[in-house]
Specification:
By secondary structure, the chain is α/β, with parallel strands linked by helices. It contains 6 helices and 11 strands. The strands form 3 sheets. The protein has a 7-stranded mixed beta sheet, with helices on both faces. A two-stranded antiparallel sheet has the order 2-3. A hairpin with a 2-residue loop joins strand 7 (about 120-125) and strand 8 (about 130-140). The longest helix has 13 residues, at about 75-85.
Length: about 200
Amino acid sequence: VMGVLLAGGQSRRFGGGDKCLSPLAGKPMLAHAIDRLAPQAGTLILNANGDPARFAQFGLPVVPDPIDDFPGPLAGVLAGLEYAAARPGARWIVTAATDSPMFPSDLVERLQAAVAGRTPAIALAACDGQIHPTFGLWPTALASDLRRALAAGTRRIVSWTDKHDCSVVDFGKVTQGAGAYDPFFNINTRDDLQQAEALLSG
């Protein structure tokens, strides 16, 4: 399983720029995502657009969207699928959003278990019934199908996954102190960043 870290968005609600490079608990948000995913995947790549040199410190291959005009996270999934399909032995990719850096440490294990023995099949993560489709396990065999769907105008992840064998794995909330939080908590704004700081320090 090849890990694909998604950072191809435009971060409008965050104020633009590379949200994943924003500091969180003493290191870039992207570094947290790398630390979470690296033990779960064979190799990692970063899906990001623009000059790849700004990510040089992380030592990862940077793969841009294969379709222009920022069509959304499905383009990042396609970037990962086509990159993996060109390399021997990579039959699956797992995607993780870099602005949700507290995702589960057993993400890949549980997604794989959900599609064991089924090919090609997709597994998506959820928490308490809410699907988080940027966290998924995708077979490289579906790369061509996804490219056709994007060319035809498909943009929502679930609009494409609904047409395939797809399982949803519910991870539930993480208990912390007297409360609980969604492990796929998404940092969209500066206020979200402060909330994530509090969760990580707690």
